[in-house]
Design goal:
Helix content: 25-40%
Largest sheet: 2 strands, antiparallel
CATH topology of the largest domain: Cytochrome Bc1 Complex, Chain D, domain 2
CATH architecture of the largest domain: Orthogonal Bundle
Number of strands: 4
Number of domains: 2
Low-confidence stretches: 27-59, 260-269
Strand content: under 5%
Shape: globular
Order of helices and strands: HHEEHHHHEEHHHH
Distance between the termini: 117 Å
Structural class: mainly alpha
Mean pLDDT: 79
Length: 269
């Protein structure tokens, strides 16, 4: 049993020999600064590391078709996204925001998680709607669907709105996200940010009048709606043919024309 006893360590009172102090070697060259492309990607990845566990990714089944419709209606007035056909400029262009992450290999799940976190906890957060996105603009299953849709298409090269029936004017209406702000039965659009086109357009509205509504939306504001909400640059971003097609479509699809015998006067009419 004595063999199992702990043997005391031998101690020595002799001082240890002194040597040169230990120093880390200097790097042979300075670390290069991160490129402008890599920095936002790393920031996105860091945000995603926090966002994904909190977002409940994979806990529900998302409907991206429904998410597209919700995005156009709730988000398109502020954000540009090619596949949605939206052209809002108050918030970030989502294709530009996520293009670098896509090219660096980040997948839709990462972008989906970032979108969820930003909607739930907008940054920056203040009471100025021109700077801060309203919190919880979509929630629950609506948020799941919108985030999945953005994760699928934002920043994808060559993304464009799906083809729609109704002729070239209907396609212009869809491509430019008009349904995100306006209700129009012919386009199956249910936006409420702007006036209901089935109600506000009447047989008294000529082609010239409707064209002015598109290119100069602040010239006459519909009752109950604030100014400076509808983009005022459609006269620049639409070609002459696209503008003409859109006006014709609105006349044919509302009481201004085919539904109410509206006038199809020229600009000078």
């Amino acid at each position: 049993m004595n063999r199992l006893k702990r043997t005391p360590l031998a101690r020595s009172n002799k001082p240890l020999p002194e040597g040169p102090p230990y120093r880390l070697r200097r790097a042979s060259r300075r670390m290069q600064k991160l490129s402008k492309t890599i920095r936002p990607v790393l920031a996105l990845a860091a945000l995603a590391a926090v966002a994904l566990p909190a977002s409940g990714c994979g806990t529900s089944s998302a409907d991206t078709a429904r998410g597209r419709a919700l995005f156009v209606q709730r988000c398109g007035a502020c954000h540009t996204m090619a596949e949605a056909g939206t052209s809002g400029t108050q918030g970030p262009n989502l294709d530009d925001a996520f293009a670098a992450a896509r090219s660096a290999g980040e997948g839709g799940d990462t972008i989906e998680g970032v979108v969820k976190a930003q909607v739930e906890y907008p940054r920056p957060s203040n009471d100025n709607p021109a700077v801060s996105m309203p919190a919880d603009i979509v929630t629950g299953q609506d948020l799941e669907d919108v985030a999945a849709y953005v994760g699928l298409y934002a920043g994808v090269p060559g993304a464009a709105p799906p083809r729609v029936p109704g002729g070239p004017g209907a396609q212009v209406f869809a491509n430019n996200g008009c349904g995100g702000c306006h209700t129009l039965a012919a386009a199956n659009a249910g936006g409420v940010t702007g006036p209901n086109l089935d109600e506000v357009l009447t047989p008294a509205d000529s082609m010239a009048a409707i064209e002015e509504m598109v290119v100069d939306p602040n010239a006459e504001i519909a009752k109950g709606y604030p100014p400076n909400v509808m983009p005022s640059n459609f006269g620049q971003i639409l070609s002459a043919k696209e503008l003409s097609d859109l006006v014709e479509y609105l006349i044919e699809s509302t009481p201004a024309g085919g539904k109410g015998g509206g006038s199809k006067q020229s600009k000078s009419g």
